Amino acid sequence: MRSPKIILENLQKHSKEENYRYERLYRNLYNEDFYLQALQNIYANKGAMTPGIDGLTLNGYGKERVERIIHAVKDHSYQPQPAKRKYIAKKNSGKKRPL
Length: 99
Known about the structure:
The chain is mainly α. Helices cover 36% and strands 6% of the residues. The chain contains 3 helices and 2 strands. It has a two-stranded antiparallel sheet. Strand 1 and strand 2 (96-98) form a beta hairpin. It is extended, with a radius of gyration of 18 Å. 0% of the residues are buried.
């Protein structure tokens, strides 16, 4: 499989072309390297170990979990969880901001 870095660079380059039409983007979801690269990009963030809406953290997110996700995408059984939006008060004003 092609490197995620090269694929993303090509997608970015083509995004500037007004009439370019993307084809077969879905197949990139079968590339294990995309998931592992994404994990590497966010793992160093401060909030990486904060549980998500599903209660899971990045701890334990490895090759086996990636393989399960890819298998679920391939057999069309993957169902993403809905995004959860909370609003919290800003420190210095009565306004709220999304979290």
